[in-house]
């Protein structure tokens, strides 16, 4: 066997170089090149090339390939089924990333328990907790089926042989950072190890049609440690997010070969594990103060589902230096732009005011449909006048102060009506040819000024500052 040489690989993009470089020429990141050994060509196992269903592949005409819908196993957690695109595709490789302590192990334990109860066999490999610890937690979660097997191990060779022996339907690896390929010289948790371990897991998944869940911890900068390469290798990437200080957790699809991305599942962390939140709009609105200023409701599309969220704004005079714009859950530039439009087209003097804008409940919004609600929340705080608690605002705000139409208006209006709101203020252009839900008054406006007059009821309040000219 030829002596193994080393090469340098970028932990961010996978670029390889023969020598060390401070900055990756491919992705431009600093200090991401990591040394690893090159396995000589002759040692690479050619048998590793196996098709999706475990047989040697043949080229076929596309018309000859049967395009049957993928079979899916539904888990007992509907929110999980949703983010997976309808259920688990057998033989797929699913990566679940998230901060330490967010609840990945809890989720996997619950899902494993349910799969085992529905007749599947599950092998749960933990490199982080002893079987005793897992048992204690499983008891708390009410997981106790006989086809649920716990295996505290980190050595991939051992794991492979046990998988061959037990032939489970599902394999859970908690976490990929703790597993190791003993033949590889690199330390546990290094890029080379993680890549090798994942390649092995991919082989296990594809040759035996075992569904593999891989748990991966996320580093401070938000990438799964050992990093993008891992995301390229798996079929589905889910991120488990949320603030450990709040009880709500969001499971987000980042990549899915078997469904759409940007789907969202919402859970609540309880004493006895995670509970699904069937109606997220209600929880995001439940803490809303009646009659408070600087608040407006909008309906944001999260994947295929509209969710009602509250936009909060606080506008206060700048005490020192430049006016600040602070945002949470919404793009700062977008907010700056809306503030500029308010200044120019609605006579709000905002340049000497600090503005804080946030979306409550830890939700992130990146679509223009929330513009109008942001504008309303800012104007509401500025004028110290509350929006009507039963109004919802939908629309993109253009630079000319116009309110523009948005996508999927009917889905959003349906959700708004379902939650008992009375009025929706939308772009006039959105009204043509749509079905209006019962019990909801939908008002079309063309300009931001009209929307502000309606939403803040400005005609009746003439004493407030800045109203005279509206
Ligand atoms: P865990 O699943 O261990 O996180 P991860 O695997 O992502 O590191 O979750 C740990 C947290 O969840 C811990 O702070 C305790 C909390 N928790 C509950 O609140 N209720 C429960 O039933 C369980 C099992 C955990
Ligand atoms: Mg864990």
What does this structure look like?
Keywords: ATP-binding, DNA damage, DNA repair, DNA-binding, Hydrolase, Metal-binding, Nucleotide-binding, Stress response, Zinc, Zinc-finger. Pfam families: AAA_25, ChlI, Zn_ribbon_LapB. Residues 69-218 form the RecA family profile domain. GO terms for molecular function: ATP binding; ATP-dependent DNA damage sensor activity; damaged DNA binding; hydrolase activity; zinc ion binding. A motif (RadA KNRFG motif) lies at residues 255-259. This protein is α/β, with parallel strands linked by helices and 470 residues long. The chain has three domains: 6-37; 74-278, Rossmann fold (3-Layer(aba) Sandwich); 283-465, Ribosomal Protein S5, domain 2 (2-Layer Sandwich), CATH 3.30.230.10. It is 25% helix and 24% strand. It has eleven helices and 21 strands. It has helices at 78-83, 104-117, 131-141, 156-166, 191-208, 228-233, 280-285, 332-345, 371-383, 409-418, 448-455; strands at residues 6-10, 16-17, 33-37, 93-98, 122-126, 148-152, 170-174, 211-217, 236-241, 248-256, 264-270, 273-276, 295-302, 305-317, 325-328, 353-359, 391-393, 396-397, 403-404, 423-427, 441-445. The strands form five sheets. A nine-stranded mixed beta sheet has the order 6-5-7-8-4-9-10-11-12, sandwiched between helices. Helix 8 crosses helix 9 (371-383). The longest helix has 18 residues, at 191-208. The N and C termini lie far apart (83 Å). The model is unreliable at 461-470 (pLDDT under 50). Bound molecules: thymidine-5'-diphosphate and magnesium ion.
